Amino acid sequence: xxxxxxxxxxxxxxxxxxxxxxxxxxxIKNAPAPFDKGDVPIALIDYISGxxxxxxxxSGARKQAKALGVDLRVFPGKEDAALQRDQIQQxxxxxxxxxxxxxxxxxxxxxxxxxALDAGIKVVAFDVNIDHPQVPQVEQSDKDLAQILLDQxxxxxGKSFKAGYVYVPGFAPLDRxxxxxxxxxxxxxxxxxxxxxxxxxxxxxxxxxxxxxxALRANPDISVVIAxxxxxxRGTKLAANELxxxxxxxxxxxxxxxxxxxxxxxxxxxxxxxxxxxxxxxGAVSIRAAALLVAxxxxxxxxxxxxxxxxxxDLEKYDIKTVEELSAKLPEFGKSDAVLAPWIPQPx
Length: 348
Ligand code: SR1
What we know:
The chain is of the alpha/beta class. The protein has two domains: 2-135 and 279-306, 3-Layer(aba) Sandwich (Rossmann fold), CATH 3.40.50; 142-276, 3-Layer(aba) Sandwich (Rossmann fold). The protein is built from 13 helices and twelve strands. It has helices at residues 5-19, 52-68, 81-93, 106-118, 142-157, 172-187, 204-218, 230-243, 258-265, 279-294, 312-317, 323-329, 331-334, and strands at residues 40-46, 70-75, 98-102, 122-126, 137-139, 161-166, 191-197, 224-227, 250-254, 271-276, 302-304, 308-311. A six-stranded parallel β-sheet has the order 2-1-3-4-5-11, sandwiched between helices. Strand 8, helix 8 and strand 9 (250-254) form a beta-alpha-beta unit. The longest helix is centred in the N-terminal third of the chain and has 17 residues, at 52-68. The protein is globular.
């Protein structure tokens, strides 16, 4: 097959621009250096990339980066601790100005984060405890998230029920939510955790469905499942539908996306409530925190985005079908005033 010189040249240009991210971004008038000149290289290093939450987080991060004239280099995660370490080292070698770390296992990356800090690179961590005074921690107030969710479960089911619980230890948000679940069980001896399952193996919903199927079969008296990640809820719902127990089960989760809304609103869906932030907003907040650090401005050590409770009843009452409609109905879900500055443009 013959290729014209122009076609080959355009492919090379495309490849180089993909490798370089959003090349040649303009500077922002009256912004502090280096944002006045534009093209500020920042790396976003994921641990998990699959699932609606992480896709929306990345999309929000990209939009905020573009608005800031940031050349954002995204390193997708594959739930591989060694790969994430390697990617942090690659970002250091690329001389980025800041690194945003999205999830991960602290023990496998703390030393390379220290190398980045020693090289003068700013670091922001979302949902991974780096435990370093120079690294701001972004989170969704997981304590509040779990509390409002469990309050709703108790409101719907009373203080005595048999529960299934979905959990994988070692992930900061899940560990923080788990501390609230333990406290709620302790305060309510009538709430019995009959079975526990969980995995982060991709695709998570399919892996969870297999586990949930076995757990629900073995414990037919489970009437409530606490599944505090939307991927956990999707998998548990799959299993409930397969077993035909969807009408007698209620699933309470975390996170929300447009496709979650349609799953929650399906006729006879067992998924009845979720506590969530808008993940695109959390992505944007993480980039803003990194930009402020690069500009030499102060950033609080704990940057918190507040969650809201979303029930099937409310989605139906207000006929909400998308995350955009939810943002319009609940302004506190659609935006966050964390780490703002007059010179930071907010994406639409
Ligand atoms: C494996 S941790 C999954 C959670 O990370 C984010 O905090 C989302 O809220 C999701 O529930």
